[in-house]
Specification:
six-stranded mixed β-sheet; single chain; 13% helix; five-stranded mixed β-sheet; mainly beta; 159 residues; OB fold (Dihydrolipoamide Acetyltransferase, E2P)
Length: 159
C-alpha cells in the first residue's frame, strides 16, 4: 500500500459502515440521487447512464462493485461525478453512487503496525492506501485503476 501525501485533500463518502476517499482533484461535482436509464446486458454494478448537462455519463453503484447489497434508503444517497485524465490525456467522467458524502479532509498515514486488512472482502485491488481521520480508518481508492478495470471487464464481456 502507498503512503499518503499529508498535504493532499481527499473527498470522503460512505458505503455501508465504511468511509472511502478519492482525491478531491478527481471530483467534478456531487448530485442528489436520481434513477438512471438502465443499459441492457451491462455489468451487474453498472446502474445505467444519465444525461448531465448534455453529457452522457455512466453511473456505477459502488455498493454493488464492492460486494454490498443495494441500498433501500436513498434519502442521503448521492452521485459523485468524477473527472479523470487517462494516460493518453483523455478526460473521462463517470458517476459513483454512494450512500452519503462526508466532505473534504486531509488524512494521516496509518502506522504500519495497524492491521487494516480484512476490512473489505471484495475488490481489495482497488484500495490504494489506508488513512485515518481522527479515530476512523478511511480506505483511499485508486479511482483510475477502478476505471481501467471496469473498461477491461467490459471488453472481456464483449468477446
Amino acid at each position: 500500500m502507498e503512503k499518503i501525501n499529508p498535504d493532499a485533500l481527499y473527498f470522503t463518502f460512505r458505503l455501508e459502515e465504511g468511509t472511502f476517499a478519492i482525491p478531491v482533484t478527481d471530483v467534478k461535482e456531487v448530485l442528489n440521487y436520481e434513477p438512471c436509464t438502465k443499459v441492457p446486458k451491462s455489468l451487474s454494478y453498472m446502474s445505467g447512464v444519465m444525461n448531465i448537462r448534455g453529457s452522457i455519463i455512466t453511473i456505477i453503484d459502488f455498493r454493488l462493485l464492492f460486494g454490498f447489497r443495494p441500498s433501500k434508503n436513498l434519502e442521503k444517497t448521492r452521485i459523485i461525478v468524477t473527472d479523470l485524465q487517462t494516460e493518453t490525456k483523455e478526460n473521462i467522467s463517470f458517476g459513483i453512487i454512494a450512500d452519503d458524502v462526508e466532505g473534504v479532509v486531509q488524512l494521516k498515514n496509518v502506522p504500519s503496525n495497524v492491521n487494516t486488512y480484512g476490512t473489505l472482502s471484495e475488490r481489495k485491488e482497488f484500495i490504494k492506501a489506508v488513512g485515518s481521520n481522527g479515530d476512523n480508518f478511511v480506505l483511499i481508492l485508486d479511482i483510475k485503476h477502478i476505471y481501467d478495470s471496469i473498461e477491461k471487464e467490459i471488453e472481456e464481456k464483449k468477446n
